[in-house]
Amino acid sequence: MHNLQIPLGSYHPLMKDPEHFKIYLQDGKIVDTDLFIGYNHRGIEKLAEMKTYDKLPYLIERICGICSNAHSSAISRAVENAAGIEPNKKARYIRSVVAELERIQSHLLWFGTQSHSLGFDELFKDSLTCREHPLDLLEKISGSRIHYGLSEFGGTKKDITPEKQGVLKKELGEIRALTEAMKEDFSSNEQYTHKLENIGVLSKKKAGEIGVVGPVAKASGINLDMRLNGVNGAYSEIDFEAITRKKGDCLSRTEVRLDDIIQSIEIIEQLLPIPKGKHRGKGRIEIDEPIKTIGRAEAPRGENFHYLHAGKKKPLRLRIRPPTYANFMCLHEMAMNGKIADAPAIVISIDPCFNCTDRMCVIDLDENTEKVRTFHEIVEGKDKDA
Amino acid sequence: MAKEKVFNESIDREKVLERLKKEKKERSRLIDLSGDKRGDSYFIVYHLERENGEIFNLEVELKDKKAERAISIFENADLYERECREMYGLEFGEEMKNLFLPSGAKEPTVEKLREVIEGGESNA
Predict the structure, then answer these.
(1) What is the pLDDT of residues A73-118, one digit of tens each?
(2) Residue A156 counted as domain residue
(3) pLDDT of A164-212, one tens digit each?
(4) What residues in A contact B4, CB-CB < 8 Å?
(5) Is residue A217 part of a domain?
(6) Distances (CA, A) of A26 to A288, A338, A368
(7) DSSP classification of residue A230
(8) Do residues A28 and A144 both lie within one domain?
(9) A-to-B residue pairs, Cβ atoms closer than 8 angstroms
(10) Of the candidates A81, A307, A313, which has its C-beta nearest B57's C-beta?
């Protein structure tokens, strides 16, 4: 057996979030990992310092095409905290409904991606078909399927009218039926569950030490959910608990996300009908005195943290810590002493917004040679050298 | 809807590790760690959440760009400290691998960005 270094992922124009992992093997076991990011650095924190507050939500929601609302919600809360503004009741309900629809579509995209990457394309098809429903609903509410332009300080720009609420209720039933069927297909597919069970285990203790968030934390038994701290949306007015598991393996992370979808449907059902009243907030605002504050939102991948050092008209400093950044460190812990064949399932299980497992380049450190291996060669055990 | 309880505190560099140890003992979690530059001064801010949900922004002014390495207390400080080193050129007293910049790149990114985009303009 050679000592090998396997670069997992690299920059590719088709990938949304290009990250690069180096995986080091000794006798076929993973003994170390390295992480490199920054291939697509856009300088958004710096750009934000040049924007007046009313322009910020537009810029910040463009950080991500999957959880754009989580970013615009977090920055809105940060600016609202700085300006001493509280969103009106109707806006809080609308924000929560949109946040849950976003969670549903994000988890469905992730489940489809995982299914495809592990070779279960039927579930990939089902998941992506089901995802059209929440995307259609988001389009109906906001006019857009990706960037909703919803945020306004103290309110929302878009309303969910009683007619739209009727459509929402009907479509939610359809999403629930499709998701329940997918869950059944997934849990009864032993080939699929065996690829995830006891793989990439992250203990509760280690998860706490590393500071992971979202479904990764919840699958390890940590009850951390920004919806439950009462500072966002209308969640404090409804009844729900964070979905958790204890084992902390890839299977638990899948179960948490699938259950999250059903829970999000139930949350929206509880939020309907949306209270009557005004939903609009303020456009341009100014902050009286410079202040340091924060805004948080529970994105589909976990806690989205925005630190704002607010100047009068523009931020003096904006710091954004998205959930995937907090979750990166657990990959090392999950992969250690595992097999290279499990690496794709482990990386995908944190939902890092990228899928670059289709090809791998194996570098033989002793002989200084390299060979490109396909995803299937590695996952199906044809990578005999490794 | 409740409001985030946010507290800001400045602390000397020499006392920060001791304070972080105390916070860890009291089950605070490190949410994030950010760098900043205001005027000629560099800052590092530890964003902590206590068990009761209170947020503490613990700010340390770094007159000589030298910061304390906090990974022995909060393991997740590693990536954030590496980012601060690359973006602001902060020094943590040990060799650290690049996270964002290509290996070998040493010039702090924010300094470069500031020159290129901002031209030294201040929002204050």
Answers:
(1) 999 999 999 999 999 999 999 999 999 999 999 999 999 989 988 8
(2) yes
(3) 999 999 999 999 999 999 999 999 999 999 999 999 999 999 999 999 9
(4) 77, 81, 231, 293-296
(5) no
(6) 59, 11, 16
(7) S
(8) no
(9) 109
(10) A307
Total of domains in chain A = 2
| Residue showing tokens 């000397």 | B12
Q: To which residue do tokens 């299937």 refer?
A: A376
Which pLDDT score is estimated for A14? 37
| Domain locations along chain B | 6-118
Q: Are the Cβ atoms of B79 and A47 closer than 8 angstroms?
A: no
Same domain, A66 and A189: yes
**Closest alpha carbon to A266 in A133, A175, A163, A132:** A175
Two structure tokens written together for B108: 């702090």
Say which CATH architecture domain B6-118 belongs to: 2-Layer Sandwich (3.30)
Could you list the residue range(s) of the whole structural domain that residue A22 is in?
A: 4-40+327-379
Which of A43, A209, A294 is opposite residue B6, by nearest beta carbon? A294
Element (H, E) at B121: none
Task: Give the span between the Cα atoms of A210 and A226, in whole angstroms.
Answer: 18
Contacts of A92 in chain B (CB under 8 A): 1
With CB atoms and an 8 Å threshold, state whether B8 touches A292. Answer: yes
Task: Determine the Cα–Cα distance for residues A226 and A77; give it in Å rounded to an integer.
Answer: 13
Q: Could you tell me if A339 and A195 lie in one domain?
A: no
In this structure, what CATH number is given to the domain that contains residue A138? 1.10.645.10
